[in-house]
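Researcher: Go.
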Amino acid sequence: MLWIFPDLETLSRAAAALFVRQAQRAIRRSGRFVVALAGGQTPRRAYEWLAHPLCRDAVAWEAVYVFWGDERCVPLSDPRSNARMAWEALLRHVPIPPDHVYPIVCEGDPASVAARYEAILRGFFGETPRFDLVLLGLGEDGHTASLFPFHPALEEPARWATGVETMDPPRVTLTFPALNQARWVVFLVAGSSKAVALRETLQGAWNPQRWPAQRVRPIRGSRLWMVDQAAAELLRGLKPASSSASGRASTRVDT
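Model: Structure:
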């Protein structure tokens, strides 16, 4: 599914509302809600909306468990840290138990960090990393999480986390075997700089080595693209935008 919003602010409000709905459903179903957060700048505003009382008070935070899709290998105090961004925008403002938060702690080389994080994931989930919700972004080059074009991590068949040492700074990322077990994967994409990558990922030829986000296809779950009008400007075959009854999206398209 593809939902197109007029701007980042509208997209962010809708993403926060979706988070709340998925949390409520998961907690009713299983007593807990397990989410993998995205880094980067696009999700920050959605996290800030989640910290607003209208959203914050609608979630049973004592039943929420937070992981990350990827992390830069920098200290948690570094402004580039995905965990720090989520802490500043959201987690410090909600009553989530500290032991329900699992940042990727980058102490040591990326391979060792990834192995430790995978051990945490396996201890938590058991045989299958069944996240209730995974939030992802999309890079201008088509990467998602820290799964970059033509990187060996794209072909990882079994591990749930791996190091990406060729980046500066190096990174640790969840892999497709982990991401594609999620109940819901939601991409948040904003800005005209993402328009080419979005078009190629959704409407281009199948080429996941060049456009890695194409390979995010949940096996037993759903995939949703929440994008703003600027990011969607190059997509082909869309109907003219019109206001939805909910006000959340201007256009909705099956993908």
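Model: Residues 208 and 215 are 6 Å apart (CA to CA).
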